[in-house]
Amino acid sequence: MKHLLASTCLVVGLMAMTGAARAECGNVTIASMNWQSAEVLAALDKFILSEGYGCNAEVIVGDTVPTITSMTEKGDPDLAPEGWVDLLPDVVNRGIEEGKLVGAAVALSDGAVQGWWIPKYIADAHPDIKTIDDVFKHPELFPDPEDKSKGAVHNGPQGWGGTVVTSQLYKAYGGEAANFTLVDTGSAAGLDGSIAKAYERKEGWVGYYWAPTALLGKYEMVKLEHGVPYDEAEWKRCNTVADCPDPKKNDWPKDKVQTLVTKKFSERAGEDVMGYLNKRAWTNDTVNKLMAWMTDNQASGDDGAKHFLEENEAMWKEWVSPEAAEKIKAAL
């Protein structure tokens, strides 16, 4: 009887501790943006916060501007795992200065990357090609699909900011004089298809792309260097302005992708939860490969999160407490 009472007390005590942990963290709303990398990161945070720390976590649909603006003005949602803070720096800075937002981990540790890329097999075969200027010396290695006597730079569809910048860099680096054409791929699918076709045929390809993306997880590409330092004033004056007539050579800045938390949630979440959110970060290479797996397997964000946890235990255990790690492993 004494053993039964002791066991009962132990169970009740553990239940009370679990309830206290859940109460401390409480309800948490997590914004899942409408692209794959943000979807899987939101799902990952939900799983870890729910299973590891006893939070009552819920994922809601969000997008960069409305979500971060709402967090600043209304204090909701509680968490934006993948905040592209460079898209609205004034809102983010004001939110932090006014004590409404807290910046947690830089979610993408090596930054979101845009630029011009070439296939790795081309880079390996021609180690002298490292910059845009180097590419423009070799139109024969990057043939235009419509005119093999010329090289081609593949651009994104109209309406993308990256398409404008690529057009301006094409002018700044003298693409036309180097016997290159600027190819309008027409759509995201057209751009992806041009890379896939080049890879299947082991042909040369150069053009605009970005990371993290599933495609760069599937096809190994090398980003070209620009050969000059980043000039912010010139970037704003001309590199990002479609009708600017005299663009200069410039580097392409990385976008800072940071986890944002409302101040009120950071104060009630507890040290362990905030400790996790301040540590949880991954690289483009990790995310590219995960998204490639998701695309190949038609997997949801939840599926991707579980796959990541199953395949990368050494990585995520660095983010969480030992107690949380055991709970997360048990829940998989």
Automatic annotation (TrEMBL):
Q: Which residues form the signal peptide?
A: 1-23
GO CC aspect terms: ATP-binding cassette (ABC) transporter complex
Is Mitochondrion one of the keywords UniProt gives this record? no
This entry's Gene Ontology molecular function terms read: transmembrane transporter activity
Superkingdom as given in the UniProt entry = Bacteria
Report domain ABC-type glycine betaine transport system substrate-binding positions. Answer: 27-311
**A Pfam family matched in the record:** OpuAC
CDD domains registered for this protein in UniProt: PBP2_HisX_like (cd13641)
Q: Which InterPro entries match?
A: ABC_Gly_betaine_transp_sub-bd
Keywords of this entry: Signal
State the protein's name.
ABC transporter substrate-binding protein
